[in-house]
Amino acid sequence: MAKPTNTVLIVLAFFAIYFIWGSTYLLNKIAVTELPAYMLAGLRFTTAGLLIFGICKITKIPTKITARQFINSAIAGFLFLTFGNGVFVWGLKYVDSGFAALEVAAMPLIVLIMMRIVDGKKIQAMSFVGVIFGILGIYLLVSQKQVIQSEDAVLGMTIIFFCVLAWSTGSLFVSRVDLPESYLVNTAYQMVTAGITLALASLLLGETWTSPLSWSGGVQFAMIMLILFGSIVAFSAFNYLLKTVSPEKVATSSYVNPVIALFLGWYILDEQLTTQSIIAAAILLTGVYFINTKKKLVIYDRFRDKLRSKRSKA
């Protein structure tokens, strides 16, 4: 009976990182228009981490970990949250939330390349086709003159690209190092360490901190949703998947997130939605299918077999 339960958990976890995280681009965009980026991220992750520790205490989940596990959690927290998310929120000041999410769609490609370089893992035929679709979708996205005509937009795209590198590195790191056995405990340590780092960065940069009571209702709502769903639910699901399925499959969330973010940004924030962006979104989703499917590419396999046959005869 354990296998069906695991399957259900995996499906629910993918739903969380696909759809809940897709909405966080919009929520971050709303919050960052009023709050300083590092203060926002630091407060969000510290609060979420402390709440998770509270959940662990209530449910009697042990929170004691080894020194090595703490160091690994802190490194993962830096890659995912301090740099990957905190700096990303800063980049949202310069580009639309939907566009930023679409740029993140490069992550599965980067993860596949990293796995090839680090582990020597061969890129499967279907995954390769998915990557090709991903590259095409990204090209259609960034080639739009109306999107990249300002210097600020180029700066924002550059910032977000380096955030994608940090997330990709973190995905491989987490999948192979010693971390707390409980995904909730692992998430809590990552969030608290990253939240403290982001808060210190905010203070060093001279950001002005304000009381949540002084925030507008929209920002208060966005922060609550980011803490409860974007951080506690979705990030715990993300850590669970990294230890359960292949990293490049987890990375496909960055193909689905853009589609959710693109339409939410258009519908709620009146962000620009071009025909080319819609086509790019459709192509990126096609890339998700090819990377996640377990089917084999028959044409490729036949070509490979013929090539091997010719080589053996030679």
Radius of gyration: 20 Å
Low-confidence stretches: none
- Helix proportion: over 70%
- Give the class from helix and strand content and strand pairing: mainly alpha
Main sheet, how many strands, which sense, barrel? Answer: none
The backbone outline, from C-alpha atoms, is: globular
N to C succession of SSEs = HHHHHHHHHHHHHH
SS field, number of helical segments: 14
Mean of pLDDT: 81
* Multimerization state: single chain
Number of domains: 1
Query: What portion of the residues fall into strands of 2 or more residues?
Result: under 5%
Number of strands: 0
Report the end-to-end length measured between terminal Cα atoms.
Answer: 52 Å
Write structural notes for this entry.
The chain is mainly α. It has one domain (2-313). Helix content is 79%, strand content 0%. The longest helix is centred in the first third of the chain and has 31 residues, at 2-32. The protein is globular. It starts with a helix and ends with a helix.
Characteristic terms for this protein:
single chain; 314 residues; mainly alpha; 0% strand; globular
SSE topology:
Blueprint: H1 2-32, H2 37-58, H3 67-91, H4 97-103, H5 107-119, H6 125-142, H7 145-148, H8 151-174, H9 183-204, H10 217-242, H11 247-250, H12 253-269, H13 275-292, H14 298-313
Helix pairs in contact: 1-4, 1-10, 1-12, 2-3, 2-9, 2-10, 3-8, 3-9, 4-12, 5-8, 6-13, 9-10, 12-13
Quick overview of this protein structure:
With 314 residues, the protein is mainly alpha-helical.
